[in-house]
């Protein structure tokens, strides 16, 4: 099985002011003259991790990564104002123009797959190919599956008991709203405790085998606060998408090369999501592998690295 490329440091970083409020952290890695690829992180609100640079051959790719509004090293941290799917789509276009990229491969996982589809459908003329992992289509039923009492609560009952148990019993019929009230209240200790309970639930479901390191990362202040606040904000607004928008508009991108990679045992974004996308987009390659949700799962890494190597041969 293929593994990630060795760790790499950026050859350039910058701050990109995208409006009166938000400034994005951007980095470029690999070969400045290589095939441009844009990495879109998950969440929304999760931010970048160093291993995100390692899916791509650094001798053949110009690798562009950025922390989305409110996430990671972008500022203001965990900011919700002017933070929506379409603000971020506009940010991607601004970044493309700033970097003088005509067309690029767009690579996104989980929420990053949602954003990649939204961007490509809005700007197909600037996309060379789409590589999507852990499909999330932003539909209300997908949010209910994991964050309210959907199927995931039956599969991880002990972790669910901790996540739901943070909220008083009288409010548990509306868990998302109950968490929202606490994530946006005036008391800092309450906000942090709610964010960490949210992060523990999500981090505990990411991998096929339980990973204490992943849970620790998702409950750290830096990740938990932006992840929980921004996710709750987006989910309360149906990810700023119309009903089944990404599937209904799939004809806008069916001419583009597409690869869909999904863990068969993904508890956060069930395999049905990938199957629905593949049915709407039969020209795309679908790889259903033995894995959970995380991009770091070995079977997912294997397919993603092979796919990016193949695209480098075909497109450069």
Quick gist of this model?
This protein is α/β, with parallel strands linked by helices and 316 residues long.
What is the name of the CATH topology of the largest domain? Rossmann fold
Q: Please give the count of helices.
A: 12
Give the overall silhouette: globular
Unreliably modeled segments: none
Structural class: alpha/beta
CATH architecture of the largest domain: 3-Layer(aba) Sandwich
CATH superfamily of the largest domain: Alpha/Beta hydrolase fold, catalytic domain
- How big is the Rg? 18 Å
What count of structural domains?
Answer: 2
- CATH level-1 class of the largest domain: Alpha Beta
Topology as a string of helices (H) and strands (E): EEEEHEHEHHHHHHHHEHEH
Structure commentary:
This protein is an alpha/beta fold and 316 residues long. It has two domains: 12-140 and 240-315, Alpha/Beta hydrolase fold, catalytic domain (Rossmann fold, 3-Layer(aba) Sandwich); 141-238, no CATH class. 41% of the residues lie in helices and 16% in strands. It has an eight-stranded mixed sheet with strand order 1-2-4-3-5-6-7-8, sandwiched between helices. A hairpin with a 5-residue loop joins strand 1 (12-17) and strand 2. Helix 7 (188-203) packs antiparallel against helix 8 (212-219) and helix 7 (188-203) crosses helix 9. The longest helix is centred in the last third of the chain and has 18 residues, at 298-315. It is globular and about 55 Å long. The mean pLDDT is 97.
Q: What does the secondary structure layout of this molecule look like, with pairings?
A:
Layout: E1 12-17, E2 23-30, E3 35-40, E4 61-66, H1 85-98, E5 104-109, H2 111-122, E6 127-133, H3 140-147, H4 152-155, H5 157-165, H6 175-183, H7 188-203, H8 212-219, H9 221-236, H10 245-248, E7 258-263, H11 271-280, E8 285-289, H12 298-315
Parallel strand pairs: 3-4, 3-5, 5-6, 6-7, 7-8
Antiparallel strand pairs: 1-2, 2-4
């Amino acid at each position: 099985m293929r593994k990630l490329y060795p760790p790499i440091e950026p050859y350039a970083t910058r701050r990109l002011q995208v409006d009166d409020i938000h400034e994005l952290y951007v980095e470029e890695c690999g070969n400045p003259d290589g095939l441009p690829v844009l990495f879109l992180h998950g969440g929304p609100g999760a931010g970048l991790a160093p291993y995100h640079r390692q899916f791509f051959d650094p001798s053949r790719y110009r690798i562009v990564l950025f922390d989305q509004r409110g996430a990671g090293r972008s500022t203001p941290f965990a900011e919700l104002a002017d933070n929506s799917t379409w603000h971020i789509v506009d940010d991607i276009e601004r970044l493309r123009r700033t970097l003088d990229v005509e067309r690029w491969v767009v690579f996104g996982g989980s929420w990053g797959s949602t954003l990649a589809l939204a961007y490509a459908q809005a700007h197909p003329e600037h996309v060379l190919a789409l590589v999507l992992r852990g499909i999330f289509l932003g539909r209300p039923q997908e949010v209910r599956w994991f964050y309210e009492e959907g199927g995931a609560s039956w599969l991880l009952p002990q972790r669910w008991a901790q996540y739901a148990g943070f909220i008083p019993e009288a409010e548990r019929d509306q868990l998302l709203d109950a968490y929202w009230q606490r994530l946006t209240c005036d008391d800092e200790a309450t906000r942090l405790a709610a964010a960490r309970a949210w992060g523990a639930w999500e981090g505990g479901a990411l991998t096929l085998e339980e990973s204490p390191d992943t849970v620790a990362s998702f409950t750290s202040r830096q990740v938990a606060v932006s992840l929980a606040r921004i996710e709750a904000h987006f989910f309360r607004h149906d990810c700023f998408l119309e009903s089944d928008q990404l599937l209904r508009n799939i004809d806008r991108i069916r001419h583009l090369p597409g690869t869909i990679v999904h863990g068969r045992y993904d508890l956060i974004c069930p395999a049905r999501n990938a199957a629905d996308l593949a049915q709407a987009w039969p020209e795309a390659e679908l790889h259903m592998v033995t894995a959970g949700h995380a991009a770091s799962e070995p079977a997912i890494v294997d397919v993603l690295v092979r796919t990016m190597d193949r695209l480098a041969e075909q497109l450069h």
